Amino acid sequence: MHNMPPQKPFHVAVCGGGIGGLCLTIGLLQQKVSCTIYEAAPAFEEIGAGVSFGPNAVRAMELIHPLIAKGFESLVTVNGWPQKKETWFDFRIGKSESRDGQEVSTDTYVADVKSGNLGQTSVHRAHYLDELVKLVPHDVAKFGKRLKETTEDGEKVVLLFEDGTTEEADVVIGCDGIKSRTRQILLGANHPAANAVFSGKYAYRGLIPMDKAVDALGDELARNSQIYMGYRGHVLTFPIDKGKTMNVVAFRTKLDGKWDDRMWVRPSTTEDMFTDFVGWGDKVQSILGLMKNPDVWALFDHPPAPLFYKGRLCLLGDAAHATTPHQGAGAGQAIEDALVLSNLLGQVNSPADINNAFEAYDAVRRPRSQRVVTTSREASHLYELENETIKYDLEKARNELEVRCKWIWDEDLSAQVKTAQNFMAKNSLGRL
């Protein structure tokens, strides 16, 4: 890919080459900002099978670089039935429950939640990353670079890596994920929000060949995205791999609220899963029975950071606001971050103005992205019939489900960028 040479009088170090770091880099190059990606792994790589994006995330891709959106569209898997094209998930009861004189019965239909013209989307993380990598010149990335410390040397930031090497930049953007080192440096290792915390829920994940899923569940339930609701648990399924495979995630609440294992992801067994979902309906039992070699994932998220920047350091994506997956919105927030931050840095004409860009980014991005984290936890309580005001009132649950994510999906991203730019301009004038 040919870029005109960068023209801005400062250099950005992007720590982490995942979805957020790559989208930011592509955005910075579009804005003629010189940058280098420092990736800890020996090559660009993503763990985990699928990632979902809402309509807001797809618009953010388009605004950073149309080819990001094109890459996404070439890979995306959506619901199998044309009449389910706009459906995010169909919700139904997966386990009969009763408490306080209220009852719900297995297979009761709850809601068809629509998210926009693509409905529930899924792309394979590694394949999506490959599309992003195509838009980044080779000489922009350095591998085997895990950040250890940063120090300030006059106007510059010096990055010290675990391999003993150092690099210099004017700006450091931490895109280093949920276990972010940059976040610890920025907030201080002992800050209560420096590290992710266990959300109280964990999930079994596995894949089922679509033909087997169709045999067990019928065409509609296998080929289109479903959420089966139960008390303190829920199971979701959706098609991936252009409809060849059904992805399954089966969530449970950990009653003591603790996760003591050092590993957040570990192999599990079908026996463990069945023990956790005893008494659930036939459909959920069939799904669990078809999952081979499930993994169990502990779900962590970040307590809210008081700021996303300090000095010449700034956080983006999961490093800033890691969330649980219950709204399918985490990766999309990283892309929104990348859109806003690259546009703001594109308006900086001297290193002295970098702080104004960070302040505007923080003002616009922190409230929205942190609200995604809190509402994601709330979503899990709703799906698992733990919401104390709704309890087992399925009419109330339907009304809430149908509208609760609209503020995420319907966001005007061009307006968000404009708001941030206006904030920055006003601040710049105020400092003159």
Radius of gyration (CA) equals 22 Å
Low-confidence stretches: none
| Percent range for β-strand residues | 25-35%
- How is the main sheet built? 8 strands, mixed
Based on CA inertia axes, which overall geometry fits? elongated
Number of strands: 21
Instruction: Please report the number of helical segments.
Output: 15
Strand order of the largest sheet: 7-4-15-16-17-14-19-18
Q: Report the structural category.
A: alpha+beta
Mean pLDDT: 95
Question: How helical, in percent, are the residues?
Answer: 25-40%
N→C terminal distance: 39 Å
Name its key features:
432 residues; alpha+beta; 8-stranded mixed beta sheet; 6-stranded mixed beta sheet; 15 helices; 21 strands
Protein described:
The protein has 432 residues and is α+β, with helices and mostly antiparallel strands. It is 37% helix and 25% strand. It contains 15 helices and 21 strands. The chain has helices at 19-30, 55-64, 66-75, 125-133, 181-187, 210-217, 219-223, 270-276, 282-290, 318-321, 330-345, 354-383, 394-403, 406-409, 413-431; strands spanning 11-15, 34-39, 50-51, 87-93, 97-99, 102-104, 109-114, 123-124, 141-143, 147-153, 156-161, 166-169, 171-174, 197-209, 226-230, 233-240, 245-253, 265-267, 295-301, 309-310, 313-315. The chain has an 8-stranded mixed β-sheet with strand order 7-4-15-16-17-14-19-18, with helices on both faces. Strands 9-2-1-13-21-20 form a 6-stranded mixed β-sheet, with helices on both faces. A hairpin with a 2-residue loop joins β20 (309-310) and β21 (313-315). The chain is elongated and about 65 Å long.
